## 1
Amino acid sequence: MTAAAIAAGRAILGIELGSTRIKACLVGDDPADVLAVGAHEWENAYVDGRWTYALEDAWTGLRAAYADLAAQVRSRYGVPIERLRAIGVSGMMHGYLAFDTAGDLLVPFRTWRNTSTGPAAAELSTLFGQNIPLRWSIAHLHQAVLDDEPHVPHTASLTTLAGYVHWRLTGRRVLGVGDASGMFPIDPATGDWDDALLRRYDELTAGRIPPLRTLLPDVRRAGAPAGELTADGAALLDPAGSLRPGAVACPPEGDAGTGMVATNAVAPRTGNISAGTSIFAMVVLERPLAHAHPEIDLVTTPAGDPVAMVHCNNGASELAAWVGMFARFSAAAGAPLAADAVYDVLFREALAGDPDAGGLLAYNHLAGEPIAGTDTGRPLFVRTPDSAFTLANAMRAQLYGAFGTLALGMRILVDEGVALERMHAHGGMFRTAGVAQRLLAGALDAPVVVRRTASEGGAWGIAVLAAFTAAASGLPLSDFLTERVFADAPTDEVAPYPEDVAGFAAYLERYRSGLPIEHAAIAHLAPRKDAP
């Protein structure tokens, strides 16, 4: 795309609020053409027993990421960004954002990472006849109802993080169907909230909260317009005042849906894995599952097609802690290495480890992990006296540990007969070529594909969804992706190594057998009272 085209307002902006980074991604007329990427680091906080992010930090981060991107555009192309053709917002799914009639936040944002909603999730799962995970918005709302929290009667609207930012940028309370499917069940026939289940919930909570539909945002499938960037929204994003209003907005989506788009995994028999602070797999279904499983969530693609989701609260954070320790060692030794270089060294060392990680065992549970049956976290590294305790095996164990709980859930889908031709993976864990990708292929016993845009993740995925809305092509989303976005995209596919398949199977058996160690640590190892 030329500078003149950027100046003419044909560029498309995608922004995503991830668990550790807020990113802004600008694409051109060809959505596969990434023009610039801006980023800002942020982190959740554990406040009064709950994981949260301050919404003020969200806006600080959004402005910083956009300013970073705008500076890159000016440097590379010599023009400012004054107009955009389209814009899209993505964010962490689930959680609880409740507002009053004035639009003020009633309680601090409760993220997907909180696992204090057990009684509510259990009651709703029975009421609805399907699994309602702890992190879903309806579980958070119902737990607040059960606990008689004083803010509940004042609740006028609920949304997700992406829905909140979209509302502030466009003035529209709208949500993409994929993100919506992590708030409350979706009727696959209509692509909207399930009316029968809404009625059941309203009967259950009559007199305690308003009818639930009045609290929830409107639902839109991918491709539908969802408002425009307003003057107030442009000023929120770009206080410098260069950005003008008017860009068409696509429905805001969750990070699961944008990950599926970023990996072209929206058609049946495809799936993707997103690895960040959490790790989750999305598998597009050809038919409904035969049984309900507490380990499996039923959600949708951004186009509204049914998806089986295996979501784990803990992903790459424990790996990052280990990398930070070795980065500090290199600095203390007088040979400092950048974080990416440390990742590269340690990940490649993992390939030299024994296929079963030498008998070592790692749990990456910084937070509770419902699939493992825990409501709080205790990261552990365990070995026996005869374990092969080497750096290579330690790092392989940490990588296997990041995939451990996910593999437990994926085994259930295999038992259900879900067909899967290959898995697409994205996230920063896959920046070191061929390492996490190969070990994941062994863990799943299936080929794993990583695309060139994998490290851009959901910010690029939501930019593609914004391009889909702007194009108004009439194509199904899967055809648009295949024909307009990924037709010439280079891919790297790794088939599972037999020794990795056997090694991970042995590791997973040890992982499953060792779960009582995790439960014992929770029972007997208290957090530091003076911990930050």
## 2
Amino acid sequence: MTTKPGNVKDKMDKFKSLEFGTSGLRDKVTAMTDMECYINTRGFIMFLEERGELNASDKDIALGGDLRSSTPRIMSAVSLAIKNSGYRALFCGRVPTPTLAYYAMCKCIPSIMVTGSHIPDDRNGIKFTKKHGEVLKEDEADILRNVERARISEYGKTLQESLFDENGMLKEIYNLPEAEFETDSINMYINRYLEVFKGKPLLRKRIVLYQHSAVGRDIVQEIFEGLGADVVPIERSNKFIPVDTEKVSIDTTSLLMKASMEHKPFAIITTDGDSDRPLLADENGRFLPGDKLGALVSIFLSPDFVAIPISANDAVVSSLDEREIKVMQTRIGSPYVIDAMNSEIERNPGSKVAGWECNGGFLLGSDWPIDDSTLKSLPTRDAVLPLICVLLLAVKGHQTVSELVTSSLPDRYTHSDVIDEKAPGCEIYTAEMGKTIIKMLSPGNSDISQVDFTKEGIKTNGVDCSTGSYHNLTLIKEKLYHYFTKGRGFVDIVSINFIDGIRIVFSNNDVVHLRPSGNAPEFRIYATADTQEATNRIVGKTADIIPGIIRDLIKKDGGE
């Protein structure tokens, strides 16, 4: 029989460990074995025990999942891990991520959501939430440390002792408990909106709901019908469809246009797979990007402070500045937005604080007075609130959705795309390579978040550049000029931001933002410009540049 120390080494070599992405654990379904999901859940529970969030009297952990094909199997492994850790899974069934999170936060218990969000069906993920909100980046090291404890314990078992076979799958089927908390969690989420937005404010407004495979499709329909809308559901699917609200596919764009012509709606709405990211199209089927959606929500809610990622359209920032709303730009990902919101609440406890991401997911950091009611805080991505707020803003102004957008926001456009290992010239690209590229094009001093190149000289973080940094920053600019050439249609670089990836501003106000994924072989490209055609051109040209950067990186590594 294999000795236990050998068991650990063999399994370390055989099985892949899950890693945190921007928000939560994600990977290909083949890597998310029952054993790996079980180990990560045990580790998260150990972390909660270490933090004092679970003890002898606190025995409940809420559990839910989306509609992708691998979710039931993964939920079974998670549920078993909860049980074997000595706790009870409050199984809420197939519900949206914000529904599960809201239910758990109201009950002051942790939650675990099995979802891959908007990514394809061959991938999935697990999202952990503490009693009072999302897992933050500062929590990840402690969670992973406890996951390693759980891993060593599980890997140390012989095949006979283990619950799992040689492929990391459960030897015996473990059935999920009954979803006895599904109705309560859904009703709590629906009432969150219907008890605040009273009087059927969307009465007789025709809303087309693109249902696809969104886990919240029926819940969203019930909420909007409760608001008085005439909801027309379309394109319900039993097969999982990966709708990305940040990178809207040609198929989705065509569907929106077709629905607008066929149904003549006030608006078209949908969400991503786990229904925490909204998609709104106007009466003509034109998609409204999530960063602009969030700006309109802020006009409706009138917050004191908002946190938004650095990738947001600069028109969003200017429109909020004009309304004297304090703006903090963060790294990309809800944990960073939440951290900024928490810091503001700590500084100004009575302030109205919100945030959002460029995918449209809106986070409410404070309880919010609306008319004679209070909308409770929900500091995690939500799809329903932003859709309601923008439609009510249009109704209040007696405008169509397109008129609202035109009258409220400057004409600045965005476009984004993803380059991965499938793109020509990027076949050898890895997530680690993406980090190296950003490091190669960034200053050695991590305190420098912004560099401005002016006629008077160089400024870092708004202050005149020190002599020691001058040469390094000039060199970075020259490296970027090597790729972003005039021959490709680019002009002088006037500023570079390093908060998350590299955000380059050119003298004609065109913007390119490069950001690699933390745990996948993907490089996301964002562009902002004065026309949609310009953003499309910028993304296309930048996509052609990435393979050249990869080739140069390989040459550099080969010569060292």
